Amino acid sequence: MYKIYQTRIAPNARRLRIFLAEKGVSDVEYITVNILKGDNLSEEFRAKNPFGRIPVLEFEDGSTLSESVAISRYFEEIQPEPPLFGVGARERAEIEMWNRRVELGFMMPSAIGFRNISGTFKDREYCDPVYGKEIGKAGLKGLKLLDQRLEDAPFIAGERYSIADATLTAGFDFLLATETVIPADILETSPGLKRWHETMKTRPSYAA
Question: Which of 57, 66, 67, 73 is nearest to 19 (CA)?
């Protein structure tokens, strides 16, 4: 039995849950770490991950692995099917490329925008709503490029579902729900994204 420390609403935690659901991995105990209260900054938690981020995978011997993509790669190795990181050099590289494009082009600027606009962690970091709105525009630009991609491809990285789809699902749904960076009507003006999102909602892993 694996232990995964997480905050349920956090995008990276949901990305991992979606990934594990797609893999059919069920021998996991989820343990809540309340990042809003700063539980992830405690000495006890930093012993598991000195950077204080979630999720964290804990093995039976007490050792840990952090960063959601690294944890996902571990499960990909021990349970190769279905191959969510791709098969063969070319497909693996393209999935890596698109996953990074989602992270760097959309999730990162959007998350920075959200944190600055919402002030969720203002008790531990400086927040500037004006800066948040400006960098949020970069996230919207990245999302528009992904929308264009999804007008031509069924999934982010091509013809099959991959970790890039889990990444975008978790990030997009969170930011859409917060109504800070992404406008509420974004799906009505983004045909590729709308078609893709409707497809994602039909997958059992979406509820993870």
Answer: 73
- Can you give the pLDDT at residue 194? 98
Distance CA 111, CA 19 (A): 20
**What are the Cα distances from residue 146, in Å, to 19, 67, 112, 119, 153?**
20, 23, 19, 27, 10
3-class state of residue 152 by DSSP: coil
Q: In what order do the strands lie in the sheet with 64-66?
A: 28-32, 2-6, 56-58, 64-66
Mean residue pLDDT across the chain: 97
Residue 94 CA to chain centroid, in angstroms?
18
Query: Which tens digits make up the pLDDT trace of 89-131?
Result: 999 999 999 999 999 999 999 999 999 999 999 999 999 999 9
Amino acid at 111: A
Tell me the percentage of the chain whose pLDDT exceeds 70.
100
The single-letter code of the amino acid at 89 is A
Beta-ladder partners of 56? 5, 66
CA R_g for the chain: 17
Q: How far apart are CA 187 and CA 54, in angstroms?
A: 29
